[in-house]
Amino acid sequence: MQPAEKPENNTVIEKNMKEIVALCKRRGFIFQASDIYGGINGFWDYGPLGTELKNNLRDMWWKRMVLCPPIGPDGHPVQIVGLDSAIIQNPKVWVASGHVGGFSDPMVDCKETKKRYRADHLFFLREINDLNKIVCFVDGTEEDEQRKKLKKLGWSQDLTVYKKATILDSVIQHDLTTKVVGPDATKPGTLTEPKAFNLLFETKIGAVASDDNIAYLRGETAQGIFVNYKNVMDSSRVKVPFGIAQVGKAFRNEVNPRNFIFRSREFEQMEMEFFCHPSEAKMWFDFWKEERKKFWQDLGLTTGNLLMREHGADELVFYSKGTFDIEYKFPFTDPGFGELEGIAYRTNYDLNQHQEHSGQKLDYIDPERNNERYIPHVIEPAAGLTRGVLALLCEAFTPDPGRPSGVYLNFHPSMAPKKAAILPLTAKDGQPEIAEKLYMELREEFPVDLDIKQNIGKRYARQDEIGTPFCFTIDNQTVADQTVTVRERNTMAQERIHLSQVGDYLRRKIKI
Ligand code: GAP
User: Which of 36, 272, 304, 385 has the most CB atoms less than 10 A away?
Assistant: First the structure.
């Protein structure tokens, strides 16, 4: 499918988050969880179309990982098998993985507003001429907002005389408790020193609520893979190098869930742990970096909106030998980028930890290498499924004042929740019967809409807004010669094809 012609200057297309969120609600993609009770911060429900979109992304990932994995450097398809592990595991899993001890963000509380902020999401402006004047903002605060706040405080609004600093600035840290005016506070000295805050959600198992039966909702899908590594090895015919893939829910008690579904407390991940010989880890790391970038490009994320960012030494956890993030330019990060997926070389840290804590041997005897014994190294491409849905929505959102809907969703046909709509021009003259017959044939293979009522302009507008790539219109000529018009969403161009070709047409267009 031809992408819609894009204006030369990308900024002409104003991708406004508020409008994207409103469309998601209006058309049934995403709702606030518990909406009728006023919502619950950090949780989201997926409506009829959002569920289809999420499933499409999940299924494409599963296809590219498990059903039809890529061709490896040796010219053969790489081996990857699937898994679906429990959300609640023995709590020792999370002790071994380090999540119980260390899965935390540094948090700052405000005594005045009772709000809590992630310390690494704050930045500080300090007046050069008066070192006692320090004001703090949440990262991403618009300059307008900053000025308003400075005005309220009766301070100079000339931002150039302020020095920007981060939480890591030790002087600022020291000053936090006395001089800094917090993001929503009216006077200085209301912020606490940063404190660690564990992100794992706790629950209790069984009838008696005591500290002895604490369990955790998984903070990532990855650990379910590591603890099943031996089961998979023993029960299937995989040999190193191979991968285990899993898609599912993860839970993190995020302090500041924000930016719609970007950072939520319940979300979905698509993670794959690729086990290999240590001497080949670097090669596989490079391989997966390229594969994963290509995946997002194939789904329609444009190159200018994607960035491969290597973690600096100060960002790497001690056991990692390298991490790249695939980042996307979301409207709320623009001109910057936000993480979509991480590709990490985790060495054999996780398997080592589980071997030590469980007492089970997790080493591998390699028949290809003279029965060498070793604990495989791991390359982990870890993507956010729900965050991926947000990237697809943001990429697709295309304001177009020239059409009745004023906007359309430019999904790649493979991701579109509905692949086509079947629209008889009028509800008489035998047209609805032909439309219904076509609908019954197509629905066996494709999610399609049959829409008979309303004027045709309104029906096109609805399909544009939900991102349906093709509309098949049945008219008088269809009755006469069995041809239909195909209206293509982006260009609105129309052509006629024979009814018998419709299935093939869709199949061809949807394929990546
Ligand atoms: N096993 C490694 C791991 O979990 P991560 O970077 O913490 O790594 C992987 O998470 C991906 O999961 C991220 O790149 C992001 O897309 C997604 N993700 C993480 N936290 C999230 C949250 N609070 N809300 C939505 N998606 C999140």
Answer: 272
Q: What ligand 1 atom has the least distance to the C-alpha of 339?
A: 14
Determine, yes or no, domain membership for 138. yes
Instruction: Output the CA 269–ligand 1 centroid distance in Å.
Output: 7
Q: What is the pLDDT of residue 56?
A: 98
Are 162 and 137 spatial neighbours (Cβ–Cβ below 8 Å)? no
User: Distances from the Cα of 61 to the Cαs of 67, 141, 415, in angstroms?
Assistant: 9, 34, 11
Residue 9: inside a domain, yes or no? Answer: no
Tell me the backbone φ, ψ of residue 249, rounded to 5 degrees. -70, 145
Domain count, the chain: 3
- Indicate which atom in ligand 1 lies nearest the CA of residue 257: 23
- Calculate how far, in angstroms, residue 307's C-alpha sits from the geometric centre of ligand 1: 17
Distance 383 CA to ligand 1 centre (A): 7
Say whether both 139 and 181 belong to one domain. yes
Which residues form the domain of 467? 418-509
Domain check: are 324 and 348 in the same one?
Answer: yes
Residues 188 and 227 in one domain: no
Task: Indicate which residue's Cα is closest to atom 20 of ligand 1.
Answer: 263
Q: How far apart are CA 57 and CA 65, in angstroms?
A: 12
List residues near ligand 1 (CB under 6 A).
Answer: 220, 222, 252, 254, 263-264, 267, 269, 271, 339-342, 380, 382-384, 386-387
Q: Walk along the chain (512 residues) in steps of 10 and give the mean pLDDT of each run.
A: 38 73 98 98 98 98 98 96 98 96 85 89 82 84 86 79 64 77 92 88 89 94 98 96 98 92 98 98 98 98 96 90 97 94 98 98 96 98 98 97 96 98 96 98 98 94 98 97 98 97 98 92
Which residue has its alpha carbon closest to ligand 1 atom 4?
220
Ligand 1 mean position, distance from CA 398 (Å): 27
Residue nearest to atom 25 of ligand 1 (CA): 263
User: Does residue 50 contact residue 33 with C-beta atoms inside 8 Å?
Assistant: no
- What pLDDT sits at residue 2? 40
Instruction: Say whether 192 sits in a helix, a strand or coil.
Output: coil
Q: Is the pTM of this model over 0.90?
A: no
Q: Are 310 and 324 in contact (CB under 8 A)?
A: yes
Q: In angstroms, what is the span from residue 268 Cα to ligand 1's centroid?
A: 8
Ligand 1, residue 262: give the atom nearest the CA. 25
